[in-house]
Structure formats: structure tokens, C-alpha cells
């Protein structure tokens, strides 16, 4: 029997298990930068439900995080996304099989998904996108399930529930599931409305936020618009409308766009380029392409994290297509196995060349102490504990009672550090917060981890460089 046979899944299973284990080993730990640290810190506060449905809210993820933190603590919470790789691999396996892949190709698709740059990066952080990807992929898996026990109405209702759960996790839901709903509308016509009560049930985690917003006088359309884009005529806050579909910014923001494309290294690239003939595969391909177009044109730095559902879909399509185009011999089995390792191999090789000065990558204008931006964003396969290193070092620099003013990135590290007992007694404030700096200088001291994003604060005060960051001095 050829090694490419359906029963020969020992090596694919080993690759999948090793990939998931590698995520645990590469975890960034209980102290993390940016949003990731904020998620960890917010979980400690015990707010199980979002109070308002703003654009930065993720009600179901917040509920899960808070419950998980209460039960298991911060260190276990930092490993939650590594744990979620197990159900992700199972869903990819089931979805791949429903699309015609054999057990071997289905397991390899799961391994390729886990090892893809964006998926692996998110798995090592406290981040919302992996949980969201589970619900989105489950919706497609359910649609392609041919079980006689699932009547069309049952299937539509359950897809509605999954849509609601995904939507209460992240707004990306409405992009990735659009092709599926157009397909459902074509198949079932008016019966697709049965998804609405399912959606309401799945969206239950956001119910408290919706009721609170209704009590403030907002209408349902206003609430929906604010949740999706941040735009609101009555509530101030961040807006994303100006960041959507910014193809005109791709050249200027090419570094962020390239990070999205890193997730195409591997069988995913074959899945994108080899257009499938089978209708189910075409539906999945169109969803993945729409996801890619949206992610790469979304004008934010971490846009690569928006591409996780598309990565999984293209991994499945790629494995199926590669099996068809590669010669049917012993070599095919080896090539399919090796394709799974493409992403870590290419990324680690490029980083080694960069680290040895052979090639150059652009870096942030003002580095954060202890963080190598290239390694942090580009090489998730190597463990990065720079946030915890920074907080522990900063604890030695900043005296008890001092005020620390920082931008979003180091603030996430410091708040998550306080959640595990570091930086105790230090007060934290954002750069744009209205804080009494002069009073703080008179009573104690004021520190800045870096000057970027806080330049206006330095106009009226002197600066003294510290081993990590700066301290403000009264003029």
C-alpha cells in the first residue's frame, strides 16, 4: 500500500501534535503587549458582560476570558488559544472531509492551519480571533454536513446560532459568512429567515450591552452601526469606517500587508491560486478570497490577525488541490508532509538572515525596551516574553506610588503585569488621559516607557533618560 493511502496518517498526526505542542512552548505568557495584555488584565476585573456594544467590545470572548480567569488564573488564560488549537484542528478535519479530502489530507490541512503564520501568532497570545474562527468554520462545516438527521430548518437554525456566537465575538463574522448566506438564500429562499431566531440566541452574550445601549436612547440600527464601524452620532469613540478597504494605503503600509501574506506560505498558496471546480470548494474559496481582500486592505497594523478563517479554508483547498496535481507516487506523500512545514521553515530562515545582518527589515521609529519588533510580529515560532521582561525591569526603575503614562502597547504589558502582582502601587494612565501631571510630580514622580504617541506631554516638562524609558522633570 502506498504511503499516500487513506490509512497512512501517522506522520500527519505527529505533525499536528507537534504543531500544537509548539504553540504551548511559544506562548507569550501572562504578561503581553497591546490588546493582548489588555484582554488578560480585563479578565481579572471580573466583568463578565460588556456594558456597551462599542467597536472594541467582544462580548462572548470577554465572558469566556473572565470565567476562565476565575477558574484557572492568569497563566492558564494565557494558554487558552493554544488549547483552542485542538478544536480548531478537529473542525478543519471535519470540514476537509466534508469537502472530499481523505483522513490523511484532512489531518495535514489541520497541521498546515495551525502552523500558518497568523494562526500560530494568535495562538501564542490572548486574542479574540481564534475563538471567532471556530464558530465561522463550524457554520460552513454544518452547511456541508450531509447527515439525514439535519433537516434544512434545523441546519439553518444552528447556522444562525453559530453566526450569533461569532458576531458576539467579532464583527469580521459578517464578511466571512457573506458568501455562505448568499448560498443559503439561493438554496432556501425565504426559509433562510429561520437563522434570525438562531442568531438572537447565539448573540445572547451581548444582550446586557444591547439593553444598556437601548436605555441610553440608541436605536437598534445605531447600535449595530456603532458595533460594526464605531460610528455614532451620540457616543464618542474610535471609528473604523475610514480604515476599511484602504487599497490606497497599501504601498505606504506595505509592511503590515506583507504580514498578511506570510499566512499564505504553504499549501494555502496553492489553495488560493488553483481555482477549484467543485461547487462546495468554490464557495469556500470565495469566502477565503473575500476575507483576504478585507484583511489586507484594513488599515491597521495587526490586520494579519483578521485572516485566520481564510487561512484555514485555503489550507483545506490547497491540500485537496495538491493531492490532485502532484504525481501519484511515493514522492507525493513526502511533498504533502513537507508543505505543512513551509511556513515555519521560510519564516525562521528569513529571520536568521536578518539576525545575522544578511538582509534588512524596517523597524519601528522608537523601539520598546526588550522587544525586537521583527521577531515579535514575524516569528511567532520563537517564544517571546519581552513584555514580561520589560515589566519586571520597569518595576526596578519606577518607585512605588509613581505615575506611569504610556501609549496602548506598553500599557497592555503593564496592566497585565499588575494582574499577576507586578508594578504594585504604581498608577497607570494613557497618553491622552486627563491626569494632573504637575501634582503627581510634586507628590512623587512621573514616568514614560517611550515618547512615541506621548510627545505633547514633553513640551512643558523636562526629560531624564532612565534604564528603561524616561522620567518627567518639572521645568
TrEMBL record:
Residue stretches spanning the membrane: 67-93, 156-182, 188-211, 256-275, 282-298, 304-322, 334-354
Highest taxon of the lineage: Bacteria
Keywords tagged on the record: Membrane, Transmembrane, Transmembrane helix
The protein's name: Glycosyltransferase RgtA/B/C/D-like domain-containing protein
